[in-house]
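Hi there,

I know you've been waiting on this one. I reran it after we fixed the sequence typo, so this is the corrected version. Both the input and the resulting structure follow.
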Amino acid sequence: MKNQTVYKYILFLIGAFFLGTGIALSDIAHLGVDPMSVMILGASYHLPITFGMTNFALSILQIIISYFLDKKNITLATFLAMLFTSLGIDAVGAFHWQTPSAPWNFAVLIFGFLIYCISVALCQFPRCGYNSYDCVVFGIMKHTGKPYHTIRWFVDITYLLIGWILGGTIGIGTVIVMLFAGYIIEFVLKFFEKVLPPAE
């Protein structure tokens, strides 16, 4: 039982860390980040802290919202995800990458997007809790009965509008995440359920 719990948390924390690296790589490409990161970047322009630390602060806000939607989704993993995702963002950002020129910037964007989707699925697979974003999504799903990708669209549009108002940058990468991330995450999660040792 103890080994199973350790296995779940290792998978979850790997996913949380690489979720941050996927977000950071998409930012490096300068072609637009996921809608939540548009909001985080927009907020970071007004705060004297890093991109990663702004992510940490807004994750706390999402946890508060999730508490009123469905507090059962909030676990120790949720709080650890805030830390590990923020560390992943700042770990990549610490290298001070230069913006790659075309077409390499598009390749970096797609690479970051794929890491993002795979990492979200890896966080969901162990079922030991969700990151703060998914806590909001699954909380809304409980009250509406709508599928995961549909609720992601609703949440993403909301975050996108807030981020745009705060000065966040919107690009082709933002559109790609909004249109395809939910479907790809669902697909990868089903793949993990077939090939990885069960986390139950």
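Quick highlight: The mean pLDDT is 90.

Best,
R. S.
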